[in-house]
Recover the amino acids of this structure.
């Protein structure tokens, strides 16, 4: 297991380098002077000169990259061109909001998606299967932000049950997390269904049935256990979708997370902040994939020794 | 004698091709969901092509006297904040979304398929290099990658297409590479190599046809994703800019009037949903009909 962990950790290095290169060249691809871009539109010539010197932008490009990596390792991402606050500070302040939303959403998605997929696989081509598969298809075809707005129309505008946006109480979490979960629940249900159907057609399932085990035992003890492995992977991979969806959901519900931050930064051309938020999203995604792979290897010994 | 055998052979070949096509078509026709998707898609395409006939006049011309009217006989889906017909803007918006979907998938195909073929066929250092770049791109969830690219390239229709297109390239590379790896060692490829066919010939004539089915399926699903992504960017205000009638941007501007005029944000969302649904249904149907590996 330790071997696998080390190997898997090492494999994230090229990806990390890739992210750093992307962030580094992002500013250089923009027309104009990177120091000007980083300082923002309101900066004075002195400020621009200071940033140029601080970041080593007057040095050759590979030295610039080395400087950049050095700052990245220390999580020094500069100051926001818009608010002048350190980028890391602003991101830290908003990160818990996004994580809260993502965790609630993925939990909801699992609670609804996995059972729906199982029922649908156990009773294929019945009304309940058609109900699950068509709702799942609707779910993946629906724009998240539209669903969010429609939920606001129904539950805030018409029924006055829940707030339309903002934070403050548990009531504020309900609509955004359901919106975010809707998309993911559809993927999880589809994946659970196809995995379960495959497992249910395997020889060991037939053996379990012919032993005279009750269908409930066959499904939960024999089939589900084997199907869980790919399902865990899919849940982990959906986290990426969730992060993309978070950008849209946070905008709909005026939710102060990093998703909203990235959009505001793009609109304000606040490049230090754009770099910071993209970095955080990339790191979150890598971290989740890493955890999923480790769980995967822990559950299934074939991976570790393969 | 020799000539007639060749002719005969050709005849048999075209017949075989023909019957396979017919068999697949029959399978696709039996799939009610795929047919429904196809019908939806047809409506969508006809709307896009016939937009000026369906809605005479300029969908972007403001008429402030009619601002935020509820659905009525004159304006079946109501008007937006500038008094423009929402139905008219949705009809013209179908052209914009179709243009984006086709553009995005073209970028994905033109860049991703050749790279995937090369990566899978040649292996070695080339493969390693291409795969590491793919890894880096896949380190970002698709929508975020597109968003990051927009941050660099800027907003607008062209940059929307380029950004989303690039974010789809790694998906095609992976898909094609995987398929190439599975057919590379087949006897017919070896035979082609043995009779002296050059690499480009092998790739185009023997390997590409075997990769066509997954590419077709992915292209249909990719069109749906492209529409969703573009609408998302438009909604955030970093995609296609007003006054161009783009569904996502229409939704974004309608968000402000949600409390008193919810119709402004509702109908463009229905249009996005139905067009994405059509590509997803068709994609699923094509996979069931064409790809024996996914048969249940």
């Amino acid at each position: 297991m330790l071997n696998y962990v080390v190997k898997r950790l090492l494999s994230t290095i090229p990806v990390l380098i890739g992210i750093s290169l992307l962030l580094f060249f992002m500013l250089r691809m923009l027309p104009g002077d990177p120091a000007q871009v980083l300082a923002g539109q309101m900066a004075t010539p002195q400020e621009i000169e200071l940033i140029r010197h601080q970041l080593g932008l007057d040095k050759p490009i590979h030295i610039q990259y080395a400087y950049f990596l050095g700052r990245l390792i220390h999580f020094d991402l500069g100051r926001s061109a818009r608010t002048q606050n350190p980028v890391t500070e602003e991101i830290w302040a908003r990160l818990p909001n996004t994580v809260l939303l993502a965790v609630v959403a993925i939990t909801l998605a699992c609670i609804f998606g996995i059972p729906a997929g199982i029922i649908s696989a156990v009773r294929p081509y019945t009304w309940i299967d058609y109900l699950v598969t068509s709702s799942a298809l609707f779910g993946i075809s629906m724009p998240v932000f539209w669903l969010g707005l429609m939920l606001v129309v129904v539950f805030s505008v018409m029924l006055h049950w829940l707030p339309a946006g903002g934070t403050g109480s548990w009531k504020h979490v309900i609509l955004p997390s359901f919106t975010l979960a809707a998309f993911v629940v559809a993927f999880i249900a589809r994946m659970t269904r196809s995995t379960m159907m495959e497992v249910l057609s395997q020889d060991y399932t037939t053996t379990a049935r012919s032993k005279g085990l009750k269908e409930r035992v066959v499904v939960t003890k024999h089939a589900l256990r084997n199907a869980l492995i790919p399902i865990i992977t899919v849940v982990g991979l959906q986290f990426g979708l969730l992060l993309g969806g978070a950008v849209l959901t946070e905008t709909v519900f005026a939710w102060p997370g990093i998703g909203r931050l990235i959009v505001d930064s793009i609109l304000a051309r606040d490049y230090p902040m754009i770099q910071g938020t993209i970095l955080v999203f990339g790191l979150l995604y890598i971290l989740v994939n890493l955890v999923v792979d480790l769980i995967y290897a822990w559950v299934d010994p074939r991976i570790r020794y393969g | 004698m020799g000539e007639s055998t060749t002719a005969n052979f050709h005849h048999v070949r075209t017949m075989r091709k023909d019957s396979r096509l017919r068999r697949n078509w029959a399978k696709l026709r039996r799939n009610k969901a795929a047919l429904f998707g196809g019908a939806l898609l047809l409506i969508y395409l006809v709307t896009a092509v016939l937009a000026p006939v369906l809605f005479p006049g300029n969908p972007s011309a403001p008429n402030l006297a009619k601002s935020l009217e509820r659905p009525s006989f004159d304006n079946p889906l109501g008007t937006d904040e500038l008094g423009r017909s929402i139905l008219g803007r949705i009809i013209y918006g179908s052209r914009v979304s179709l243009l984006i979907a086709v553009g995005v998938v073209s970028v994905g195909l033109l860049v991703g398929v050749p790279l995937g073929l090369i990566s899978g066929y040649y292996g070695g250092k080339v493969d390693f290099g291409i795969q590491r770049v793919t890894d880096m791109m896949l380190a970002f969830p698709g929508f975020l990658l597109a968003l990051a690219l927009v941050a660099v390239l800027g907003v607008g229709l062209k940059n929307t297409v380029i950004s989303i297109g690039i974010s789809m390239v790694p998906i095609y590379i992976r898909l094609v590479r995987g398929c190439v790896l599975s057919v590379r060692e087949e006897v017919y490829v070896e035979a082609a190599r043995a009779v002296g066919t050059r690499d480009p010939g092998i790739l185009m004539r023997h390997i590409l046809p075997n990769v066509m089915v997954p590419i077709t399926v992915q292209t249909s699903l990719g069109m749906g994703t492209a529409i969703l992504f573009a609408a998302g960017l438009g909604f955030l205000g970093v995609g296609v800019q007003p006054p161009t009638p783009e569904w996502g941007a229409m939704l974004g501007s309608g968000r402000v009037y949600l409390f008193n005029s919810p119709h402004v944000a509702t109908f463009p969302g229905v249009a996005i949903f139905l067009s994405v649904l059509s590509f997803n249904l068709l994609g699923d149907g094509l996979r069931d009909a064409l790809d024996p590996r996914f048969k249940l």
User: Anything to note?
Assistant: The CA atoms of residues 20 and 202 of chain B lie 23 Å apart. The domain at 31-47+86-290 of chain B is CATH 1.10.3720.10 (MetI-like fold). Residues 199-236 of chain B form the longest helix (38 residues). The mean pLDDT of chain B is 85.
